[in-house]
Batch of 3 targets.
Target 1
Amino acid sequence: MFDTGSTTFMIICTSLVMLMTPGLAFFYGGLAGKRNILGIMMQTFVSLGITTIMWITIGYSLCFSGGEGGIIGNFDLAFLSNIPFDQAFGGPDGKYPTFIFIAYQMMFAIITPALITGAFVNRVTFKSYLIFLVVWQVFVYYPFVHMVWGGGILAEWGVLDFAGGIVVHATAGFAALASVFYVGKRRDTRSNPNSIPLVAIGTGLLWFGWYGFNAGSELDVDAITTLAFLNTDIAASFAAITWLIIEWTREGKPKFVGLLTGAVAGLATITPAAGFVPVWAAMLIGIAAGAICYIAVHFKNKWGWDDALDVWGVHGMGGVTGTIALGIFASTTVNSQAGLIEGDVAFFMKEVVAVVISAVYAFVFTYLMLAVINFITPVKVSEQDEELGLDTSLHGEKAYDEGVL
């Protein structure tokens, strides 16, 4: 018999992570210019459909079957074959069905490539994005899930990633940067957010969903689950206030978008470490997230990299910072792994090497992949379509009836 409490907990966490994808759509949709609201939201929402199809057919199998100590799994569980609906996750004594673990991991797969879209808002054709969505998951996301969480080579090496600093944020963030370099700048880089309240709604949904993202990654209900939950909120709060203070000091006014962006940076940064570090470390990680991600965004602006919605600065550098912080602050007082502070230099080095490998591979592969896709169908929209806005030129719709507003 399954444990009712554990099963319910995993269902709730899965639902929370699913909610993050619409939350991301609202977050990006609010930040985008008024002619590209639906374009960016469409790119996010379409992942709910396409990624689900991919995950059920081949994704789960490639991530979590076969390939022990390798880079990718096999097709033994394709179409969820040989998995009875009442099979227990983790063996006969498992507390909940395998199917809810499959669904939980599927929600991670859905949101990860969607994170990338904020970097190239209003510059990429929808057809090329659909190809990108499929190919990037197969050759970037699935291998890193398998290597870190599916018993692959990085797991055997001793690399840890509680909820996705390497697997989700580093890969997506550096893929976003590669996309920016490939597609180039927007014609109008001064596009202001069309709806800051929409950004706030998106941030609230992301923050709320992130409790399922991090606490659920314990895959059980125990003390570490509650630690991950609390660390998530602490890091987000400290990062939000750190970003607010820095921006207020530099620009003379407290900015709401800055506060919201800082919160997301803190959430991304604590993700790999949430269940491995004590509360005091989560505070430091939040402060580091607010400062480092803020600096990264301004570094990007200084060099003219047109990462429109700061995916690299917030998610890419957040994932890297959080993974390194895990290597530093991991403590046997809360979990089984010691970090640099407790004398485990080898673990620290493994985390650094693993996150560098993930970032470099995601960057290089994404850039080359976009070049190949461009031979199949144009990646970048025409100047006329960009000027008109993707909502009208590609989708034939408008976010708002301007005659009413």
Target 2
Amino acid sequence: MTTQPTTTEAPPALAPATPEGFWASYGRAWVRTPGSAVYLLAVFVLAMVSVTVLASLFWTGVGLLVLVIGLPIVVGTLVIARGFGAADRGLLRLTGLPTIVEPEWNRDRTDAGGFWLTLTRPLRNAHYWVYLVHGVVVSPIISTISFALTTVWLSVGLGGLTYWFWGVFLPRGDRGADWGRYVADALPWLFGGWSAWTVEVVLYLLAGMVFTFTMPWVLGGLARGHHAVAVGMLGRWKSDDLAAEVRAEAAARGAAVHAEDVALRRLERDIHDGPQQRLVRLQLDLAALERRAESGDADAAAELAREARAHAKAALDELRALSSGVAPPLLQDRGLAAALAATAAGAPIAVHTDIDPAIDAVTSPEIARTVYFVVAELLTNVVKHAGATAATLKVSLRPSVSGAPSMLDVWVVDNGRGGASYAAGHGLEGLRERVAGLRGMLVVDSPVGGPTSIGAHVPLAASAS
């Protein structure tokens, strides 16, 4: 990671504003002004509709709570309030301000509970009630204020600048009643000799210039006020992130448990089909060898001894291979980088490796075992199924960005026939579940004809969970 150089200069926000900086900022504010004006006018209409609909439905539902129908009406009101709040958040995008993240609506997400628990779920979620308060009370109040100020600034600003054109079409009535004449008579030192029409045009023009010049700040400030209220009432809370974190943790642990169960079943099957069968054959060969030795047939006994030794060696090799897939000694003794390099070197095809040695210092034993198993399985798949002649193994660290955990990126790329895909119950699906157990993700890019690129991305913060 790069470190920022130390400096004694003042931060940019504290530096004195230059004319160029002021006009650039003012220009950017003007770019956002049309969107802010449209939002401030549209949100007033939305607020009037929301207070009418929500208040009517809610109090109707409350009045009918003594009957069964009242509860669904209240729940439906909360759902409609959510829709009005979502519309407000959507309109706020016109202002160019940061997008407001949607709240967590189903914190108690579960398939169990029955009809009534599912129906009343909005009643147990504070976000629905806050949205209701926003749609019935808060939004109508602040929208009315902002609508009044917006209409004043737009009418005076735009109307004042163009009064010289459209003012001539207005009925003037008695010329002596023109307010421009009263102003000219009250300020003869300023408007002496001016006609009433000229005084009106000049004053309207000055007012239009002032209101138009300040329009970006006023409308932008009103939009930011709406945005601040929406962030607090319509946005995502810290408790939502905690709930999502707990749910993700539970899902990761569930995936890990399932992956371990599948791996144990596969290990049991491999032991039964491999070493166990060889050991049974070895037992039979030893029994036959004993009979040959008792009968004095030395040549037959020697042949059986050689076959028994071959079966014993094959069983030992298979047991070593199976144990290396569970907890290889090299991984425990020398670390993940050395274990991955040894696995790549032992593959029957050429495997180019690019492994960052720093991974040993930041990976937990749990992450190291899973990554080793995933890489070993991927290289085995390359040899057995891909028809590849060469592969590349790249393992690197990705620094954290914006508070996110650092990532361990593992890529296995081969030049085989491609077409790899997930299949329920085995293969890549099992590897995806293993990686998901560490709250990571497995990415497969394998078009027909190749090449195949499979990446495992594991957050290193998972070691602390």
Target 3
Amino acid sequence: MTKKIAFKTLGCRLNLFETDAIASAFSKKDFQIVDFDQSADVYVINTCTVTNQSDSRSRKVIKQTQRINKNALTIVTGCMATNYKEQLQQNKDIDYVVDNDHKTSVLSVVESHYRGEIVNPDQFEKDLFDYAAADETFHTRSLIKIQDGCDNFCTFCIIPKVRGRASSRPAAEIFENIKKVVEFGFKEVVLTGVNLGRYNYEDYNFEKLVEEILDIPGDFRVRISSIEPDGYSESFFRLFAHPKLTPHMHICLQSGSEDILLKMRRMYTAQLFEEMAGKLKASRPGFNLTTDIIVGFPGETENDFQQTLELSKRIGFGHIHTFKYSVRKGTRAERMADQIPDKVKSSRSETIRQLAEKMKLDYRKTFVGKKQKVLIEKIDNDGFAIGFGDHYIPVIIQEQGLERNTFYDVQISGLTLKDEPMLVGERKKIKYKAVRIN
């Protein structure tokens, strides 16, 4: 009898890639993949532990499996499984805890379990990159893991502890992975890792790797996921002249205060970040630069916070992900004086959120009357197509009969509001009236 398996992914795109690859491997073994809220024989939870809130969400999901089917096999993997491995192994609701080093062995763990073997996930070989190209994923875009781990040791971050030191995937494997997913029919690949700019394998750095990826034949485009603002050469920006490389980067600022960046042990200054932002925006018209900001870091004064606000306004981000500083055990920041009260963190977070919403709206308005190449990701309840343009902005094409995972050239006719501001696209030579969606 075919067994049912469900997956839940929390956290970063690296986790999303790994879940996609694991799920695809199970599908090839004749497991039936079902939604996580449905009854399944196996639940795999790929966790995040970057903040206290991430830990809380991961624990809630683990408990959720017991409410759905208490007899199911529950496997917890990911960063929380690494950070709290011994603690989770004592949880009676969890059958196997698989740390990041052994995440590629999840299928082997399940198969061994159903053969009646005594299974210890640590018995399997460690391999950070042994993920086969996924032909069936939970996304229209294909995520491509090129790197793992980090050597920066920022004072607030536990990623080096749960992901290990920086390690780069062999370039030949990356090229082969991309060629396969393009053959599978994917139209967009997203390069992902912990610290992409520090990619270094033999004679390949990040710039050379991306340059050769862009030369791979096929009708697809390349997007770069979250990246640190250090580690790649200034000449990298010239690559955005290539039509396959999308004009969008999510680069983590974290703070606009030089003093706070120093306390965070970030590998750049606010001034250098601003100069880099200007060069990126000059590389292609309308370049979409998005970022992360942490508010309430220990010792952050009102003046430090105002510097972050002013720098954000000058740069004009397309979007800001805001995080309230969260104490992580084992980090240097945990031991720092002048911890900020949560009330102050919440107030500063709300201020950033309001600024981010205004900047997002202002940025998206600039596309009205311009053209975008949209990759359709889903069809809504009205039968209209929704996807993302080159600049990673959501676009709705108010026409029925369009297909997922297909490029459509559109002209932006307006802006509409649903869950967030969306551009309204009209296909070339065909006019459709933009209708406001409530």
